[in-house]
Amino acid sequence: MTAQIITIGDELLIGQTIDTNSAWIGAELTKTGFDVTRRISIHDLRDDIIDTLNEVSGRSDVILITGGLGPTSDDITKQTLCEFFETRFVTDYDVLEMIEGMMKRRGFPMNDNNRRQAEVPESCRVLKNATGTAPGMWFEKQGSIFISMPGVPYEMKYIMQEHVLPELNKRFSSRSIKLKNIMTYGAPEALLAELLTGFEASLPGEIKLAYLPSSGIIKLRLTAKGDKTNLPDEMLQQQVEKLYRTIPELIIAEDEENFETVIGKLLREKGLSVCTSESCTGGRIAHMLTSVPGSSAYYHGSVIAYDNKVKTSLLGVPQNVIDRYGAVSSETVALMAEGARKILQTDFSVATSGIAGPDGGTETKPVGTLWTAVSSASGTITQTYRFGTERSVNILRFSTASLHLLWKQISGL
């Protein structure tokens, strides 16, 4: 069971639009049991589309195509598919009725462009689209299924969920692919791979391990393949438990959960609260924590103490501490955390002060230096880190490292 994904659109190739469709389709096909062997992005050009269709035809069970189905002159996918499958256009009156109803509800008049949306290749199976004017189309040729869908993400997802995935599950029911993601923090990729040398060597042949790093967090993805009559769930769970025994101090969560989600769960369970006081991260940690639904139950607020005057006047950091140790120091960041916890009346407070770059560093405190602190009733703990020189990357890494320290304190690790 193999699949390929083709995305059509100049905007994808020149970077104006990020191709989120392929990522979503790939994930859904994998859950269904397909090996996605290739993703291809091509121009809105007839020759490019024809050449690509000829190349993939007969080489995969399923080819998913998105883009180029709109009503304007630059949308040529439908005409090209009609040519490739050697058929002609016919009007699908059910689709036409849907489009007329949609235009009426939205208060727009029907025009010829809208009507042409109801013209489909005669040889295709029409996949009705209740979220837009362009229907999906299902073709079969040389042992391959070709499915063309709009490039608008919510329209594509509707057609996939309502039509494509249910039908693929019926036709291809013999195989299962199960994924388990384990989120880790605290060891770089090379060291983590070294720690897992024995674990990886002992994996059953049906299970593969992949390392997926992002801003300090490394996702370990376990992929198990098996027959749907003999699902690999139990085998996968055994390896997950083995991972917990191998690197217990590095595992923070499972299945795409991030620090802010895990921290939110812990605070809710324990009935505790948190606030932030940020200098170098400029509110990034506050944003991360409040991005979790329901965070108002445990998050009180933030002080963005970017200027030293805010550190002294609002958070109560004495000027002589900053003069003696510097704004980027254990002493300053500890007092920032304690001051914010007192003002905002929370159980925990996390604070940051650092040098994000690209300038401002010194020989003793180079760009990429972070001091972070967590304050609670049991005391205040500080930690320093050294990262790189890229400002935007540093701000994210600073925030992630600070949340890691907060998570450890809440967890009692």
What is the residue-averaged pLDDT? 92
Tally of individual helices: 16
The CATH architecture of the largest domain: 3-Layer(aba) Sandwich
Question: How many domain regions?
Answer: 3
Looking at CATH, which topology of the largest domain would you report?
Answer: Molybdenum Cofactor Biosythetic Enzyme, Chain A
Q: Give me the count of strands.
A: 17
> Quaternary state, please?
single chain
Query: Could you name the ranges where pLDDT drops below 50 across 5 or more consecutive residues?
Result: none
How would you sum up the major sheet? 6 strands, mixed
The fourth-level CATH homologous superfamily of the largest domain is MoaB/Mog-like domain
For the record, the CATH class of the largest domain is Alpha Beta
Structural class, from helix and strand content? alpha/beta
How far apart lie the N and C ends?
A: 45 Å
Radius of gyration: 27 Å
Question: What are the defining features of this structure?
Answer:
five-stranded mixed sheet; six-stranded mixed sheet; 17 strands; 413 residues; Maf protein; Alpha-Beta Plaits; Molybdenum Cofactor Biosythetic Enzyme, Chain A; alpha/beta; single chain
State the gist of this model:
With 413 residues, the protein is an alpha/beta fold.
Characterize the structure shown.
This protein is an alpha/beta fold and 413 residues long. The protein has three domains: 2-171, MoaB/Mog-like domain (Molybdenum Cofactor Biosythetic Enzyme, Chain A, 3-Layer(aba) Sandwich); 175-254, 2-Layer Sandwich (Alpha-Beta Plaits), CATH 3.30.70.2860; 259-411, Maf protein, CATH 3.90.950. Helix content is 41%, strand content 26%. The protein is built from 16 helices and 17 strands. It has helices spanning 10-13, 20-32, 46-56, 77-84, 93-106, 112-116, 153-171, 189-195, 197-201, 233-246, 259-270, 284-290, 308-313, 319-325, 330-344, 391-411; strands spanning 2-8, 35-42, 62-66, 89-91, 119-121, 125-127, 136-141, 144-149, 175-185, 207-214, 217-227, 251-254, 274-278, 299-304, 348-354, 369-376, 379-386. A six-stranded mixed β-sheet has the order 2-1-3-8-7-6, sandwiched between helices. A five-stranded mixed β-sheet has the order 14-13-15-16-17, sandwiched between helices. A hairpin with a 2-residue loop joins β7 (136-141) and β8. α2 runs parallel beside α7 (153-171), α3 packs across α4 and α11 (259-270) runs parallel beside α16. The longest helix is centred in the C-terminal third of the chain and has 21 residues, at 391-411. It is elongated, with a radius of gyration of 27 Å. 37% of the residues are buried. The mean pLDDT is 92.
